[in-house]
């Protein structure tokens, strides 16, 4: 019987998926099965996986129904005690999974664990450890990003980069989850096409009494947004803001007036950010550059 199943959802960028799977195959513990769910990639990604990684269980979907639906296609059949949701733009090193699995074996109340994630330049991906955002912390987080800063409560600044601590949420790019917890709280909510389904899952895990732990002693690389570029295409930007609305209405309703203000504010941000992105692309085209925009499996 498997001890671990790894699920990687892909959509384009076979180069990133190849690097991810190569790192996984050099690092996996015994009794591990790797599943790749291709979300109807517009290129040869599925064929590349089939050819270069015959030991991987490849699931070819005929449509892109989102990150949650693609993962759920495998999660619904999980029999191993642990499952790892891993982004295709993520790379892991030897010993990382053994370390985390052993830690979860020792702490049976932990339903989910994430590790320290670093971006391509070696800096911390602050979404590796998070508090669940409120409307106010979200506003502060986005405002700080505009000026190139971090430090919002959302990024759990009370937990050190190399600490081991309980947190409210970890990043969907790397989520090691106990199958027993999945059976209790249910699968990912497929209403979130992409974005916030990881936060929603974390909220539900904690509500059911499971702990979520960030372990900064081990590190994976996350080429954050590597399959989509630095600016979200309009479709992804829409789903990002739509997921913010869904998450707020599902978990953080206040009063009809406050709810209307929050939802209006989210869609106003969508309009402003979409306009800014359109202007940026127009400027890039006028200079002869054409930014590539391929939908990521998850950011």
From TrEMBL:
It comes from the Bacteria. CDD domains: GT_2_like_c (cd04186). It comes from Isoptericola luteus. The lineage of its organism: Bacteria, Bacillati, Actinomycetota, Actinomycetes, Micrococcales. This is Glycosyltransferase family 2 protein. SUPFAM superfamilies: Nucleotide-diphospho-sugar transferases. Gene3D superfamilies: Spore Coat Polysaccharide Biosynthesis Protein SpsA, Chain A (3.90.550.10). Pfam families: Glycos_transf_2. Residues 6-143 form the Glycosyltransferase 2-like domain. InterPro entries: Glyco_trans_2-like, Nucleotide-diphossugar_trans.
């Amino acid at each position: 019987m498997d001890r671990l199943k790894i699920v990687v959802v892909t959509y384009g960028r076979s180069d990133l998926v190849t690097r991810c799977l190569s790192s996984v195959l050099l690092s996996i513990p015994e009794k591990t099965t790797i599943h790749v769910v291709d979300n109807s990639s517009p290129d040869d990604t599925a064929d590349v996986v089939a050819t270069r990684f015959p030991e991987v269980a490849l699931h070819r979907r005929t449509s892109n129904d989102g990150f949650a639906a693609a993962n759920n296609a495998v999660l619904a059949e999980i029999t191993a005690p642990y499952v790892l949701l891993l982004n295709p733009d993520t790379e892991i090193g030897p010993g990382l999974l053994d370390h985390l699995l052993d830690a979860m074996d020792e702490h049976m109340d932990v339903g989910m664990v994430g590790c320290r994630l670093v971006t391509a330049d070696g800096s911390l991906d602050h979404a590796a450890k998070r508090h669940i955002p409120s409307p106010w912390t979200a506003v502060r987080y986005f405002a700080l990003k505009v000026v190139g800063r971090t430090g919002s409560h959302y990024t759990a600044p009370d937990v050190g980069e190399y600490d081991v601590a309980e947190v409210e949420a970890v990043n969907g790019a790397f989520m090691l989850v106990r199958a027993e917890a999945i059976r209790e709280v249910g699968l990912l909510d497929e209403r979130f096409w992409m974005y916030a389904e990881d936060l929603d899952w974390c909220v539900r895990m904690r509500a059911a009494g499971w702990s979520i732990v960030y372990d900064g002693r081990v590190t994976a690389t996350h080429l954050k947004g590597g399959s989509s570029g630095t600016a979200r295409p309009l479709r992804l930007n829409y789903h990002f803001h739509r997921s913010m609305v869904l998450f707020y209405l599902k978990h953080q309703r206040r009063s009809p007036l406050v709810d209307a203000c929050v939802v209006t504010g989210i869609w106003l941000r969508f309009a402003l950010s979409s306009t800014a992105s359109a202007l940026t692309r127009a400027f890039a085209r006028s200079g002869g550059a054409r930014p590539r925009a391929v939908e990521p499996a998850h950011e």
